[in-house]
Design brief:
The protein is mainly β. The chain has two domains: 61-227, Immunoglobulins (Immunoglobulin-like); 231-338, Mu homology domain, subdomain B (Immunoglobulin-like, Sandwich). Helices cover 4% and strands 50% of the residues. The chain has one helix and 21 strands. It has a five-stranded mixed β-sheet, with no helix packed on it. A five-stranded mixed β-sheet has the order 5-14-12-7-10, with no helix packed on it. A four-stranded antiparallel β-sheet has the order 15-16-21-18, with no helix packed on it. A hairpin with a 2-residue loop joins strand 19 (309-313) and strand 20 (316-324). The longest helix is centred in the first third of the chain and has 13 residues, at 10-22. This is DUF11 domain-containing protein. Residues 1-25 form the signal peptide. Keywords: Signal.
Length: 340
């Protein structure tokens, strides 16, 4: 940008800058500037129009911007989430219509495989290109393999890149996948990368890379991170009473000190424990435990402990827990007698 009058007021300078940004001169435009000369001689003013002239042609400026639009450059999703979206904006900041190739590189522990067809299968991610920040209806899938022109953009034009995923049901709390989205300037209407061309002189048209990396490409990065419970389960069994004389009431009796032999008629107790790790990023909600008692034991009683409800029907025990916060633990117990 050339500033011809450094005495512009602040308001005028802002208006001037805004005008240039919104309407850049097209490549090849010839800009001619002439001076008029006048002087006094013999009591007469002598004037010459166009006493000197200078011209140049506007060069082609290649400039672009890629911006991740999600807060803190991170999108959070739960296990089994279908179609979380990372959104990127691509702007043409140059002065000519350009095509743009989009490449997406991904890495991280969260298992997602690139699916260029965008079938939406579990454990995959895919790319669509849209004209709005939100994913549009029937937005076309973009195949990022190789150089592919996603769209031609006029100066100040833009489109949105949507990286979409179907998170697997077994994705673990805290797992993440990083996505680097790179846009590369292409010749309009082609899949050919723009090449910088310099040294054409003021009467020729240079192609100048004006992007921050001066290479005709820009990259932005975002992360998809999993919020999930991190559950572990355990089941233990102890002998409450050996009941050697057959008089022990397994449903209500107090534990016998030193009982350890699970002989026929003995009373045993199962303890089922569920824990949500302190590092978990979400509580476990609507948790259900189903325990079918094995052959060889007969149900005697249950104690719901920290569970919301625990029921038994035909030897199958079902425990329900509404919410288990990160760092939380809940247990319930089942008593049964060893079959004679």
């Amino acid at each position: 940008m050339r500033f011809f009058n450094m005495a512009l007021s602040a308001a005028a300078a802002l208006a001037f800058s805004t005008t240039l940004a919104s309407a850049q001169a097209a490549p090849g435009t010839t800009v001619t500037n002439s001076i008029d000369l006048s002087y006094s001689s013999g009591g007469t003013t002598i004037s010459t129009t166009g006493a000197a002239t200078a011209s140049f042609r506007v060069d082609r400026k290649i400039n672009l911007n890629v911006t991740g639009l999600d807060a803190s450059a991170t999108v959070f999703a739960e296990q089994g989430a279908n179609d979380p979206v990372l959104t990127f904006l691509v702007d043409n900041l140059g002065n000519a219509t350009q095509g743009f190739d989009i490449n997406v590189a991904s890495s991280g522990a969260l298992g997602l495989t690139y699916d260029p067809a965008g079938t939406g299968a579990e454990g995959t991610f895919w790319i669509t290109i849209g004209t709005t920040q939100a994913v549009g209806a029937n937005e076309p899938v973009y195949n990022a393999n190789g150089l592919v022109n996603a769209a031609d953009l006029a100066p100040n034009g833009k489109f949105y890149v949507h990286v979409r995923a179907n998170v697997a049901n077994n994705a673990a709390s805290g797992q993440s996948r990083n996505f680097d989205v790179t846009a590369t300037a292409l010749e309009s209407g082609t899949a050919n990368a723009v090449a910088q061309l310099l040294g054409q002189g003021l009467n020729g048209v240079d192609t100048v890379f004006a992007d921050p990396g001066t290479d005709g490409r820009q990259t932005a990065a975002e992360t998809l991170r999993i919020n999930a419970p991190a559950l572990t389960a355990s089941k233990t069994v102890t002998v409450i009473s050996e009941n050697r004389d057959g008089t022990f009431n397994c449903a209500n009796g107090q534990p016998d000190s030193g009982a350890q032999a699970a002989i026929p008629g003995a009373c045993i107790e199962y303890t089922i424990t569920i824990s949500n790790a302190a590092t978990a990023t979400l509580p476990a909600r609507n948790l259900t435990i189903t325990d079918a008692l094995p052959a060889g034991v007969a149900f005697a009683r249950l104690d719901r402990g920290g569970f919301s409800t625990v029921t038994q029907s035909a030897g199958t025990v079902t425990g329900n827990l509404t919410n288990l916060a990160p760092g939380g633990t809940a247990s319930f117990t089942i008593r049964a007698t060893v079959s004679n």
